[in-house]
């Protein structure tokens, strides 16, 4: 972000450092203001284009992760178009972030580009700043979806990359044929 001319707040720098120091593989950012699950990229490949689909090389995985959350959420999975978030019903309650609206400096894009962590953004309700008495309902609407999403950490390939003596190899590059996005091993 600094190379793009953005000033990075101290707390953002701390989170970036933390993400680079621990090999997280899955995260979610919770927001208010809509009822939908978005996934990277949040920044359009063409900055002058609004609402432009901007997939990562891991588009299929991100869609699966977003669907895991959306399908387990009782309101997002509701097929009524007359409810909060109803304009996303035909999309299954998920959307590519840049296709919804493009913005720079998002954590989901940073995580994907600079760490091994896949992050989705969950818009937990149509109220940007819900009242205290609404929080209990919001928690219950999202609890099982969060748990379902967390279980997705067990999807995919996992194991230990080691040398011929069985010693783990730190920062080994892992490539998957057909996906132009490598990950590295942790400590």
From TrEMBL:
<dbReference type="InterPro" id="IPR008969">
    <property type="entry name" value="CarboxyPept-like_regulatory"/>
</dbReference>
<keyword id="KW-0479">Metal-binding</keyword>
<keyword id="KW-0121">Carboxypeptidase</keyword>
<feature type="active site" description="Proton donor/acceptor">
    <location>
        <position position="123"/>
    </location>
</feature>
<dbReference type="InterPro" id="IPR000834">
    <property type="entry name" value="Peptidase_M14"/>
</dbReference>
<keyword id="KW-0325">Glycoprotein</keyword>
<dbReference type="InterPro" id="IPR057247">
    <property type="entry name" value="CARBOXYPEPT_ZN_2"/>
</dbReference>
<protein>
    <submittedName>
        <fullName>CBPZ Carboxypeptidase</fullName>
    </submittedName>
</protein>
<dbReference type="InterPro" id="IPR050753">
    <property type="entry name" value="Peptidase_M14_domain"/>
</dbReference>
<dbReference type="GO" id="GO:0006518">
    <property type="term" value="P:peptide metabolic process"/>
</dbReference>
<dbReference type="Pfam" id="PF00246">
    <property type="entry name" value="Peptidase_M14"/>
</dbReference>
<keyword id="KW-0862">Zinc</keyword>
<comment type="similarity">
    <text>Belongs to the peptidase M14 family.</text>
</comment>
<feature type="domain" description="Peptidase M14">
    <location>
        <begin position="1"/>
        <end position="153"/>
    </location>
</feature>
<keyword id="KW-0482">Metalloprotease</keyword>
<dbReference type="GO" id="GO:0004181">
    <property type="term" value="F:metallocarboxypeptidase activity"/>
</dbReference>
<keyword id="KW-0645">Protease</keyword>
<keyword id="KW-0378">Hydrolase</keyword>
<dbReference type="GO" id="GO:0005615">
    <property type="term" value="C:extracellular space"/>
</dbReference>
<dbReference type="GO" id="GO:0008270">
    <property type="term" value="F:zinc ion binding"/>
</dbReference>
<dbReference type="GO" id="GO:0016485">
    <property type="term" value="P:protein processing"/>
</dbReference>
């Amino acid at each position: 972000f600094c190379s793009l001319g953005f000033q990075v707040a101290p707390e953002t720098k701390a989170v970036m450092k933390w993400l680079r120091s621990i090999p997280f593989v899955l995260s979610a950012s919770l927001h208010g203001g809509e009822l939908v699950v978005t996934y990277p990229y949040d920044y359009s490949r063409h900055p002058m284009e609004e609402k432009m689909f901007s997939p990562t090389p891991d588009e299929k995985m991100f869609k699966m992760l977003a669907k895991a959350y959306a399908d387990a959420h009782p309101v997002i999975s509701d097929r009524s178009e007359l409810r909060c978030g109803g304009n996303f019903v035909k999309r299954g309650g998920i959307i590519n972030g840049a296709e919804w609206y493009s913005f720079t400096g998002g954590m989901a894009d940073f995580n994907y580009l600079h760490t091994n962590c896949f992050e989705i953004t969950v818009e937990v309700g149509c109220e940007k700043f819900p009242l205290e008495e609404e929080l209990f309902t919001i928690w219950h609407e999202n609890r099982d979806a969060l748990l379902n999403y967390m279980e997705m950490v067990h999807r995919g390939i996992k194991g230990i990359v080691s040398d011929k003596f069985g010693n783990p190899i730190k920062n080994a590059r892992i490539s998957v044929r057909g996906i132009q996005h490598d990950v590295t091993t942790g400590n």
